[in-house]
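Sample 1 of the test manifest.
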Amino acid sequence: SQKIEQNSEALNIQEGKTATLTCNYTNYSPAYLQWYRQDPGRGPVFLLLIRENEKEKRKERLKVTFDTTLKQSLFHITASQPADSATYLCALHYGNKLVFGAGTILRVKS
Amino acid sequence: EAEVAQSPRYKITEKSQAVAFWCDPISGHATLYWYRQILGQGPELLVQFQDESVVDDSQLPKDRFSAERLKGVDSTLKIQPAELGDSAMYLCASSSTDATNEKLFFGSGTQLSVL
């Protein structure tokens, strides 16, 4: 069966450190993958999109990698800040729609 | 910055009652989506519109849920009758094209509680 797996436990890190979130998938062959941020009680907000022929994408303090052999994407936030605390969702392109993972809660402590 | 508008923000209803949610996408966005998000899970697509046409409603429980986008602009999602298991966040999203290479813009959602 098809699965998208993100870190099931919350990730707690210290301010200033790099946060690394994982998205693994099985039985999908996505042409691209997206990452979204979601704050409590709010809708997701788009962060980054990476295509299957791209290994890495950067935007300010954010970096995403996409390994189609490992069927994995890593999402990095460098120099993390308490304001980065949120749930981060990965989403795969499947057919003509996006399929979301359950998300990983990130808590950055000052 | 343009936003996706949703109302109401919160809705409390009793089981067997009818509820309706409204969404106004970003102006000019042809594609509109309704997602359901249960606490602790990711959003699950219920229905996707391209203009006024339904593109995908394979996960919509059609015995109780209905969705329309009559003029290809705003949209309404209805549940009748509501069941306890329908308690969730209902999210509307839009994009200028379909999801194949476009980011989605989400509204703030409607939090539904069925008692």
